[in-house]
Specification:
The complex is a heterodimer.
Chain A (H helix, E strand, L loop, with lengths): L1 H30 L7 H15 L9 H24 L16 H12 L15 H30 L7 H27 L9 E4 L5 E4 L4 H10 L20 H26 L2 H28 L2 H5 L17 H13 L14 H12 L10 H21 L4 E2 L2 E2 L2 H26 L2 H4 L7 H15 L14 H30 L16 H35 L5
Antiparallel strand pairs in A: 1-2, 3-4
Helix pairs in contact in A: 1-8, 1-11, 3-4, 3-5, 3-17, 4-17, 5-6, 5-7, 5-8, 5-13, 5-17, 6-7, 8-9, 8-11, 9-11, 9-12, 9-18, 11-12, 12-16, 12-18, 13-14, 13-18, 14-16, 14-17, 16-17, 16-18
Chain B lengths: L1 H33 L1 H4 L3 E4 L2 E5 L39 H17 L10 H4 L9 E2 L1 H15 L3 H10 L1 E2 L10 E3 H12 L5
Antiparallel strand pairs in B: 1-2, 3-5, 4-5
Classes of the chains: A mainly alpha, B mainly alpha.
Chain lengths: 565, 196
């Protein structure tokens, strides 16, 4: 049992690193202007798109230009998506005749999908038309991931002394050369395994016992593929990847977990190529892998302990299966949950609300530190760079040398940007949670009482500000209060990090590169890897341990004294 | 500013056409020509009426069928248009009460003693509310009831269970499990429908 699970974890790690390596090299070629095998097809299409849109693909942008392009593109995306959802019934492809979304749900969902969060205050199969899913949400599954990747690439270029590039060009290339081709193959595989793909109205079944059952339908496979690959995580159905039509068996489940980490890991190899030193990428990878081993180990351990109180009711001992599927028992549920919250995916194949108190706490902690343990497409890389620069700065202070990263000085400007990117999401998490826990509108949505109820609130704002999108789904979030506050948290968590990172990319790009002296602190070493991992842990713990004590830890302690709420 | 907006609008529209229309529509075409049954929901028909999807649990309450796991989907459970878990945490009184009740019902249905342990999957609500699988242990306990109410030998039902076990992929991914929907369909096929 445990041996099999460990074998599975090893198989997962091996495949994702191998595929990540090859994909990472390919991604590097795309963004450093090298030849790739898709050129004959993609060059003409891209050139056509750039000509239609009036984009000068050759020109690298300044901080102001890049930020303006990115913000306008994303704000326009929010506007269009809001429009589609708010006028859903007029859009067609709506066999179940779902009505228009309320203004606050449309706003929340629009910001949610554009920020790559995919927080869902709604149940897909009872709210969204096929048009909204396919032409509204799915489009942002591509474009929000591409936005993240573009910023990551801009930062890689900046850190290694190149111009940061053009936002539109990198976004388009990510979409057309990485996301669409992989999603295409991926979706066909999913259908072959039983993921549905159709536009029919819901099927009425006369059950074997003669009862009635209605089965939701829809174009699921095409959306499912990009939902995982783009670390979006917004399920077609309410229960996301726990639904048999989204994730029918162990094989699709394995591929889904694999595809969450694929691009984030590939980008680390891409970074090594940009830096001209593979070990720069591997050092970052190492810190992430170290943290991931810790979190996966803890989630797995806490889940394997099960709910002691169930045994007293006459249930066999073992991991709790409440909220889990038989086809995804202990091992893959723990792996999926850890991967989805390490990356900013947020898809789930088991209900996190019903996880053990401490595993729920580990999942939250991963999001609280900013989803830097591999993280989202692009977002994981630039998120970890916040900590990398901070680590180098601290090391520099400790040994009394000018702090440098990749031979470039880290100065007040960069550190200010780093602090902004660190503080904004943390403030959003703790601030909004405090407000929600102290007002009637916030408490009205709870599904659980006691410390677990507070966990539901804390998890919601953590997930929003970290752009994760998973939930302690018992929380009824489709209210004006939650929809609006969560939307603000998502917006801050996304652009409050992206803009400082563009600033850093540009300022580093303009700096002189010094050759490292023999006594200099190097960033391609094991020492740096370990220092980086500890920086993440210590900063995360310092900021969030009090909040976790009142939620996950309190619940764990009370559970062992037999207290129910 | 307006120039940027124009660029954004035009590029967004072109990419939306590719990702939001061309891609899913092509996929629909391929899916429904290469994997039609899967794309339409792996449905099972009796004549022209769909009676089940082999991927989705449906409610079985009668003694001569195997029962699926408890469901929190929709008001009465097993609602294929309203998937949901209970979302109750470890320390929830509601969860505690629900499981206590389910343990009693399971023991009564299957004629178990009040001290016999009940399989975990039999009394906990699945994540989707539509989990079509149960564990081998759960199925084996139910076999006696199913056999008795159909008036057939228990060994025959056990045989059928073993023929329907789904094995792990390549021996390591997944666990042994039974699909309740296909198992019940096989039961009816092998031993005939029970008249009520």
């Amino acid at each position: 049992m445990e041996v099999l699970d460990m074998g599975l974890f090893a198989l997962f790690a091996f495949t994702v690193v191998v595929f990540g390596f090859f994909l990472g090299n390919y991604v590097y070629k795309i963004f450093d202007g090298k030849k790739t095998f898709l050129d004959p097809v993609m060059n003409p299409i891209e050139n056509l798109l750039f000509r239609i849109s009036g984009i000068n693909a050759e020109k690298s942008q300044s901080f102001k230009e890049y930020t303006l392009s990115l913000m306008i593109f994303n704000l326009f995306g929010i506007f269009i998506l809001f429009f589609i959802l708010y006028f859903q019934s007029a859009m067609g492809l709506n066999p179940q005749n779902f009505s228009n979304l309320s203004w606050h749900l449309a706003l929340n969902t629009a910001i949610s999908f554009v920020t790559n969060t995919n927080w869902q205050s709604y149940g897909g199969e009872s709210t969204m038309s096929y048009f909204s899913q396919m032409a509204g949400l799915s489009v942002q599954n591509f474009l929000s991931a591409a936005t993240g990747a573009a910023v990551a690439v801009a930062l890689m270029r900046g850190l290694t002394g190149r111009g940061i590039g053009n936002f539109y060009v990198d976004l388009t290339k990510t979409t057309l050369r990485i996301l669409v081709p992989i999603a295409f193959v991926y979706a066909i595989f999913l259908v072959s395994q039983g993921v549905i793909q159709n536009f029919s109205s819901y099927v009425d079944v006369t059950t074997i016992e003669g009862g009635k059952q209605t089965l939701a339908m829809g174009p699921v496979a095409s959306q499912e593929a990009i939902k995982m690959l783009g670390t979006n995580g917004g399920g077609f159905f309410n229960v996301n990847s726990a639904h048999p039509f989204e994730n029918p068996n162990e094989l699709t489940n394995f591929i889904q977990i694999f595809s969450i980490f694929l691009i984030p890991i590939a980008l680390l190899f891409t970074y090594g190529k940009f830096a001209g030193n593979r070990r720069e990428g591997i050092a970052i990878f190492g810190a992430m892998a170290l943290l991931f081993a810790l979190t996966l180990g803890s989630t797995y351990y806490f889940e394997s302990q099960g709910n002691v109180m169930l045994t007293q009711l006459g249930v066999e001992a073992g991991p709790s299966m409440e909220g889990k599927e038989v086809r995804f028992a202990l091992g893959v549920s723990s792996l999926f949950a850890t991967v989805t919250t390490a990356a900013s995916c947020g898809a789930v194949n088991a209900m996190h609300d019903s996880f053990s108190p401490l595993s729920g706490g580990v999942l939250m902690l991963q999001m609280m530190v900013g989803e830097v343990i591999f993280g989202g497409v692009g977002a994981g890389f630039y998120g970890m760079m916040i900590y990398a620069l901070l680590s180098m700065f601290m090391i520099g202070l400790m040994v009394g040398k000018t702090p440098m990263y990749l031979g470039k000085k880290i100065e007040a400007y960069e550190i200010k940007a780093v602090i902004i990117a660190l503080l904004l999401p943390s403030a959003a998490i703790l601030g909004f949670s405090a407000i929600a826990a102290n007002c009637a509108d916030g408490l009205a949505g709870l599904n659980n009482a006691g410390p677990h109820g507070l966990s539901e609130i804390l998890y919601a704002y953590t997930s929003a500000a970290a752009n994760n999108g998973s939930a302690f789904a018992g929380l009824t979030a489709n209210t004006p209060f939650y929809n609006v506050t969560l939307a603000i948290a998502m917006f801050i968590g996304r652009f409050g990090v992206i803009i400082p990172m563009i600033a850093i990319a540009v300022s580093m790009s303009n700096k002189k590169t010094y050759a490292l002296s023999s006594g200099a602190v190097r960033s391609d070493t094991m020492t740096f890897t370990i220092f980086l991992a500890f920086t993440v842990l210590i900063l995360g713990a310092l900021t969030f341990l009090p909040a976790l004590t009142f939620t996950a830890i309190a619940e764990h302690v009370l559970m062992h004294s037999g207290k129910l709420f | 500013m307006f120039k940027e907006l124009e660029k954004s609008v035009l590029l967004f529209s072109s990419l939306a056409l590719i990702c939001g229309l061309a891609y899913p529509l092509t996929m629909n075409l391929i899916a429904n020509s290469a994997f039609e049954a899967e794309a339409k929901g792996s449905l099972v028909y009796e004549g022209k009426t769909p009676i089940a999807s082999t991927l989705i649990a449906q409610n079985f309450t009668r003694a001569h069928y195997f029962h699926p796991r408890p469901s929190a989907a929709g008001a009465d459970g097993y609602d294929g248009a309203s998937s949901s878990g209970s979302n109750l945490g470890y320390t929830s009184q509601k969860l505690h009460d629900a499981i206590k009740g389910r343990v009693e019902v399971y023991r009564a249905e299957n004629n178990l003693s009040t001290t016999q342990k009940v399989p975990m999957d039999a009394v906990t609500a699945s994540g989707s509310g539509l989990d079509p699988h149960i564990t081998l242990k759960n199925a084996t306990i139910q076999a006696k009831r199913v056999a008795a109410s159909r008036g057939i030998q228990e060994a025959k039902v056990i045989d059928l269970i073993h023929q329907n076990v789904q094995k792990p992929y390549w021996g390591i991914i997944g666990e042994e499990k039974i699909n309740v929907v296909t198992l019940n369909l096989t039961l009816d096929r092998e031993f005939g429908k029970v008249k009520i």
